[in-house]
Design goal:
Length: about 260
């Protein structure tokens, strides 16, 4: 990522939450921590942010705090060709009149493109998925009540009892920040809570992750792999990760990366 683009993303991150760590920015940018520290130092001298121990904060900290993790707009620029192939494989599991739930994310959002010819009952907390399906499909669409988090393009309810507690579906589709033998991981406790509400409310649970997600780590666990029925990923997956998935009893679907 070019220096100017890194600076734009860093400023967007510090404007979205009270403080951001060097480690978080390195993950979002795909850059080294040394590079991030240099960028923070430069922007501090430009008086565009305030350098603090281990990270940076906004000159005028936000009153409305964003979710942890990459902004949706940044995730949309990463591996989208692969994500579309994974999404298509997920939609290939569906047929008319099924009821499904889709958790927000850029890989799951890519499913909407391939759902246009299907008649489905859809519950989703993704503002992007709901918008696309309403405009360009025959699906019946339901969204939960709650706050729209613009940076993640997701609707999250602060209340323990919402429509997800009164819904049951044939299939639940989720994405993840990371995946390993400990389970399916996310970065923000609110997202973890939202997915956990849905995880036992479907006959089948399908995880959509590109192969880079097998390298990511987080302390936030949504569920063990044994609760996932199907994992769809690309052919960049390593043999160790394949064995972890199979040992958990999951069906593994591997899509081929499109050749340029």
């Amino acid at each position: 990522m070019h220096e100017i683009e890194r600076h734009r993303v860093i400023l967007s991150e510090v404007e979205a939450r009270p403080i951001v760590t060097v480690a978080h920015l390195a993950d979002v940018l795909g850059a080294s921590e040394a590079t991030v520290r240099r960028d923070i130092s430069f922007l501090d001298k430009q008086k565009k942010l305030r350098r603090v121990r281990g990270g940076a904060e906004a000159i005028n900290p936000p009153s409305d705090v964003s979710l942890l993790g990459r902004p949706y707009s940044v995730s949309q620029t990463i591996n989208m060709d692969i994500k579309r192939c994974i999404a298509k494989a997920a939609v290939d599991l569906l047929s008319d009149n099924m009821s499904i739930m889709i958790s927000g994310g850029t890989t799951t959002a890519a499913m909407s493109e391939f759902m246009r010819g299907l008649k489905l009952q859809v519950l989703t907390n993704s503002f992007s998925i709901a918008d696309q399906l309403i405009k360009k499909s025959k699906c019946s669409v339901t969204v939960p009540s709650g706050k729209i988090h613009r940076e993640q393009n997701i609707i999250l309810s602060p209340f323990p009892d919402d429509i997800s507690n009164h819904t049951y579906a044939d299939v639940l589709f989720i994405g993840a920040y990371g995946i390993n033998s400990h389970g399916v991981m996310e970065t923000d406790p609110q997202i973890v809570q939202a997915v956990m509400k849905l995880i036992n409310r479907a006959d089948q649970r399908v995880l959509l992750v590109d192969s880079t997600k097998f390298q990511n780590r987080s302390s936030m666990i949504i569920c063990p792999l044994s609760q996932i029925d199907i994992v769809i990923t690309d052919d960049g997956i390593d043999n160790k990760s394949k064995e972890v998935i199979k040992a958990a009893g999951c069906r593994l679907i591997i899509v081929e990366q499109q050749k340029q």
